[in-house]
Specification:
Layout lengths: L4 H6 L14 H7 L5 H9 L16 H7 L3 H9 L14 H8 L2 H31 L4 E11 L2 H4 L4 E9 L2 E12 L2 E12 L8 E5 L4 E4 L6 H12 L3 E7 L5 E3 L1 E4 L4 E4 L1 E4 L2 E17 L5 H14 L4 H6 L22 H5 L15 E15 L6 H10 L7 H8 L6 E10 L2 E12 L14 E2 L8
Parallel strand pairs: 6-16
Antiparallel strand pairs: 1-2, 1-15, 2-3, 3-4, 4-5, 5-6, 7-12, 8-12, 9-10, 11-12, 12-13, 13-14, 14-15
Helix pairs in contact: 4-5, 4-6, 5-7, 6-7, 7-9, 7-13
Length: about 450
C-alpha cells in the first residue's frame, strides 16, 4: 500500500535519546571513508553504552549520516540494531526523505522495512491501552460521514465519500463502510465491515469482512515485497514534502452569517442530526518545504499533470501543456551530488546549518493559511481523546492525532461534530459526526460469521 512520507512518520511515536556523547564518535566514525562495515560492527560491539539514536548539533542521527553519505552497508547494520527510523533533523527531514533525495532504492526499501517493523511493535504495544480505554466507555453506536466536495462538475464525480457506522460493545468495535477500493478514477463500492477485538491475540485483533462475497481477511501489518517496492517507486517519483502547522498564528472566532432584513451579523447555528451546533472559524497556518532534486524532467511533468487533473483540467491536456523551460539544465533533470565536506567542516558549522552531504538542493518553502470551519456541539457525549481511542482500534487513529493535538489547543466549547478543511483551492474535505447514542439496539455481529471464508488476498492494500 503506497504511503506518503507524513503517513509513515505518523505511524509511531518519537523516541528520546538515553544519553549524550559530546564527541559524536559514532557520527564521526560513519563520516570516515576508511571505515568499512566490519570495522563498524566491531566499533558498535565495543561501545555497548552508546546511544545509537543520538542527534548531533544539526539534528542528524547516525542513520541520517549513513543515508546521506550513501553507505548502504552501514544503514543495514544500524537498522539491524533497531535504531529509530522515524526522526527529523533540525531542517525537518527524516532518513527516508534523505534516501529519496539520493535516489537509492535499496536504502529506501531497507528504511521502509525497518519502519514497518516499528509500526507493528508500536501498534502491538498500544493494544492494551486501547482496550482499557474502550472498556471504560459505555457501549454506543455512531454515524460518521466524510466526503470531498468541489464546485467543478467533472471532478465532483471522481471524489470519494462514505458514511461509516461504528458500534462499540465492551472491548469490541465494528465499523460498517461502503468504500472498498480505488482503481484509476473509479471508486469500488460494496459492503465491508471492520471488526476489532481488544481481547484477542494481536495478530487476530483486526479483521475486515466483505459482506457481499462472504469472505474475510485479517489485517496485515507486515507489507509484502511487492507492496514495499510500490512504496519505493511512489516516494522516489514524487516531491519530498515536510509540513508543519503554524499553531501560534491560528485564532478561533465565531463564524458569522447575515440575517435579513437588516443584514445584522450573528453567529451561524444549526441543528445537525441530533445536535445543536455553533460554528467557528480559524485560519490555520501550514508551513511546507518541498524538495525535488531527485526528480527527472518526466517525473515533474507527470506530477504536474496529475495536479492539474485534480484541479479540473483533463489529464492529457495538462500533460502536454507543461512548460519545458522550467526544466533544469541536465538531461535527466536530477541535481548532482556535492563534494563531501570534511568532518571538521561539518561538525563546526552553525547548529542546524550543516553543509550539504547529498545532492544540491532544489528546495521551495511556502506558508499558506486555510480557513477551517468547525461545527461545535456541547451535546456530543464523547471527548476528543475518547474518539481517537476508538479510531486507533480500527487503524485510523494515526490520521487524527495531529487533529486532536491541534483542536486541544483551541479551547473549543464542545466537540467538533463537523469539520471542513480546504485541501486544494477547489476541493474541501468534510468530516461529520451525524448521530450518536448509547447502547441501544446494537448489532450482535461483533465476530466473523461462521459462513464466511478466509481470503488473505481480498483486500491487497490492507
Amino acid at each position: 500500500m503506497a504511503q506518503n512520507e507524513d503517513e509513515w512518520l505518523d505511524a509511531i511515536d518519537d523516541e528520546q535519546p538515553l544519553q549524550e556523547d559530546v564527541e559524536f564518535s559514532l557520527h564521526k566514525f560513519i563520516f570516515d571513508d576508511s571505515n568499512d562495515v566490519q570495522n563498524f560492527r566491531e566499533f558498535l560491539d565495543g561501545k555497548k553504552e552508546l546511544n545509537l539514536n543520538q542527534q548531533d548539533l544539526h539534528g542528524n542521527t547516525a542513520l541520517h549520516l549513513a543515508v546521506m553519505l550513501r553507505r548502504q552497508d552501514f544503514v543495514e547494520e544500524l537498522i539491524e540494531r533497531q535504531v529509530t527510523v522515524k526522526v527529523k533533523n533540525k531542517q525537518g527531514w527524516t532518513p527516508v526523505a534523505e534516501a529519496v533525495s539520493c535516489g537509492h532504492r535499496e536504502t529506501i526499501k531497507s528504511l521502509l522495512k525497518g519502519l514497518t517493523r516499528q509500526m507493528k511493535e508500536a501498534r502491538k504495544s498500544k493494544q492494551g491501552a486501547v482496550s482499557k480505554a474502550l472498556s471504560e466507555l459505555q457501549d454506543f453506536e455512531m454515524t460518521l460521514k466524510w466526503d470531498f466536495k468541489t464546485w467543478i462538475p467533472f471532478v465532483s464525480r471522481l471524489l470519494p465519500s462514505d458514511t461509516c457506522h461504528i458500534f462499540k460493545s465492551g472491548t469490541k468495535l465494528r465499523m460498517d463502510s461502503t468504500l472498498v477500493d480505488f482503481d484509476g478514477w473509479k471508486w469500488e463500492r460494496g459492503k465491508i465491515t471492520f471488526l476489532f477485538d481488544g481481547d484477542a491475540f494481536f495478530e487476530n485483533s483486526l479483521v475486515v469482512l466483505d459482506r457481499e462475497k462472504k469472505v474475510f481477511q485479517r489485517i496485515r501489518l507486515d507489507e509484502s515485497e511487492r507492496e514495499i517496492d510500490e512504496d519505493v517507486e511512489m516516494l522516489i517519483g514524487t516531491d519530498i514534502i515536510s509540513t508543519t502547522l503554524a499553531l501560534e498564528h491560528s485564532g478561533l472566532k465565531p463564524k458569522e452569517s447575515h440575517r435579513w432584513p437588516f443584514l445584522s451579523r450573528i453567529q451561524k447555528k444549526e441543528r445537525l442530526g441530533s445536535f445543536d451546533v455553533e460554528y467557528y472559524e480559524l485560519h490555520l497556518g501550514v508551513n511546507s518545504k518541498k524538495r525535488r532534486e531527485h526528480l527527472s524532467v518526466e517525473d515533474i511533468k507527470r506530477n504536474r499533470a496529475l495536479r492539474k487533473a485534480l484541479m479540473g483540467q483533463k489529464h492529457e491536456e495538462a500533460l502536454h501543456r507543461v512548460d519545458s523551460s522550467e526544466s533544469v539544465d541536465s538531461l535527466s533533470g536530477r541535481k548532482p551530488f556535492v563534494t563531501k565536506p570534511t568532518w571538521d567542516e561539518y561538525i563546526n558549522a552553525p547548529p542546524g546549518d550543516a553543509p550539504l552531504l547529498g545532492r544540491e538542493l532544489d528546495l521551495k518553502t511556502t506558508s499558506k493559511y486555510y480557513r477551517v470551519t468547525m461545527g461545535v456541539s456541547e451535546q456530543f457525549p464523547l471527548k476528543i481523546q475518547q474518539l481517537v481511542d476508538v479510531l486507533e482500534a480500527i487503524g485510523l487513529g494515526k490520521h487524527f492525532h495531529r487533529l486532536k493535538e491541534f483542536l486541544e489547543k483551541q479551547s473549543l466549547p464542545g466537540f467538533p461534530v463537523k469539520i471542513e478543511i480546504p485541501v486544494f483551492p477547489t476541493v474541501t474535505a468534510t468530516v461529520t459526526f451525524e448521530e450518536f447514542k448509547f447502547g441501544e439496539n446494537l448489532p450482535e455481529e461483533f465476530v466473523i460469521p461462521t459462513n464466511f471464508v478466509e481470503d488473505p488476498d481480498r483486500f491487497p492494500d490492507m
